[in-house]
Specification:
Elements: H1 2-10, H2 18-26, H3 35-47, E1 54-57, H4 64-73, E2 82-86, H5 92-100, E3 101-102, E4 114-115, H6 117-120, E5 125-129, H7 136-148, E6 150-151, E7 160-161, E8 165-170, H8 174-179, H9 185-191, E9 194-197, H10 208-222, E10 229-230, H11 232-240, H12 246-260, E11 267-268, H13 275-287, H14 297-315, H15 320-327, H16 331-341
Parallel strand pairs: 1-8, 1-9, 2-5, 5-8, 10-11
Antiparallel strand pairs: 3-4, 6-7
Helix pairs in contact: 10-12, 14-15, 15-16
């Protein structure tokens, strides 16, 4: 009775204000501020309480499992198991046993009875990532689960009832696979009740600084370093570059920068980019400069000033008073310019 009242109440709940929505989902690891990200949160809000089957479509590394977990977390099944399986990571001859379970003696290595993931997720949610990797014969057997709500372990002649919410995911539109006869059409219509598009990182560049700073704090704490922020040039680079690996690639990118940074460095600047990323940064900057267009004078002067100061500091072993005398400026003026340009001594500078 209580569960039925909760379901009815969902239809009368007013939508959360945008700020409250962002805070709610930040608590489960979903970070962003862009319009596409907020649209995604509204989709999750609509799907979570309804117990419908959801298909998450988006590129690899875009955060599909995190979204699936959020849907489960805010559903009426939240007190029951959330189980995830990557259908592309399991050998085709083992996937059936993983999903449905098996009885002792069903095949050579089946030394005892084993429950499958569908039974383990009973009353909860099963997240099936890269579901197109299910073999076609397994897809047919999976249809039986969705139609009848029951599972028959491999090698058994008995079935057991289950109640599982299915959230599936794929990195390319399922309808294209159906058209190419690589995915069963009847299973597609069973699964494709509430599709949700997960935007790629390239579709939401406004969210990159927020995500990057989140990862910076995480890895600085793990590595016991003092890194607190990125220089503006690094943030610009991150927002302009292409991220084929999406959020997972950004996370690895930030971890790499933190690993290369000296323990006491607070601001990560472009001098600490590894050679391959230095090269990529220069190439990106050159590609964005229109042919025949000259940079504004103040930009060119600022870049030249920073280059000159760095060269002078390196040439004088980072002795600031001596460098100021060489440049014929006051020591405090030099320090102010270093702060403005984010010029910080690297650990390996002598």
């Amino acid at each position: 009775m209580t569960r039925s009242l909760q379901k009815v109440q969902q239809y009368f709940d007013a939508p959360l204000p945008e700020t409250a929505l962002l805070v709610k989902y930040e608590a489960v690891g979903l970070l962003g501020r862009s319009k596409k990200f907020i649209d995604l949160l509204h989709d999750i809000e609509a799907a979570a309480p309804c117990d419908v089957r959801v298909v998450l479509e988006g590129q690899s590394g875009a955060g599909k499992e995190l979204v699936a977990h959020a849907i489960h977390h805010f559903s009426l099944r939240c007190d029951h198991p959330f189980i995830a399986i990557d259908c592309g990571a399991i050998a085709p001859n083992l996937i059936e046993s993983e999903l449905f379970g098996h009885v002792k003696g069903a095949f050579t290595s089946a030394a005892s009875d084993r429950k499958g993931l569908l039974a383990d997720a009973d009353q909860g949610t099963l997240f099936m990532d890269e579901i197109p990797n299910l073999p076609l014969d397994t897809q047919a057997k999976f249809m039986r689960v969705l139609q009848a709500g029951e599972v028959r372990p491999v090698g058994s002649n008995k079935t057991c009832k289950i109640d599982v919410r299915i959230i599936s995911a794929c990195s390319m539109p399922l309808h294209q696979l159906v058209e190419g006869q690589k995915f069963r059409e009847d299973l597609y219509y069973r699964l494709h009740v509430y599709p949700i598009h997960i935007p790629s990182l390239d579709e939401r560049p406004e969210d990159i600084p927020l995500l990057a700073n989140h990862f910076l704090k995480k890895f600085a704490a793990q590595q016991h370093k003092q890194a607190e922020s990125f220089h503006a040039t690094i943030l610009d680079f991150m927002q302009q570059r292409h991220w084929p690996g999406n959020i997972r690639e950004l996370e690895n990118f930030v971890e790499r920068l933190v690993t290369l940074a000296p323990p006491q460095m607070a601001i990560l600047d472009r001098d600490h980019l590894p050679p391959d990323l230095q090269k990529e940064m220069k190439k990106l900057a050159a590609s964005q400069q229109p042919a025949g267009v000259v940079k504004p004078l103040y930009e060119s002067l600022a870049e030249y000033e920073e280059q000159l100061i760095r060269q002078a500091l390196n040439g004088n072993h980072w002795n600031i008073p001596q460098t100021a005398r060489v440049l014929r400026i006051a020591e405090q003026t030099l320090r102010n310019k270093m702060t403005k340009r984010g010029i910080i001594k690297r650990q390996n500078n002598s």
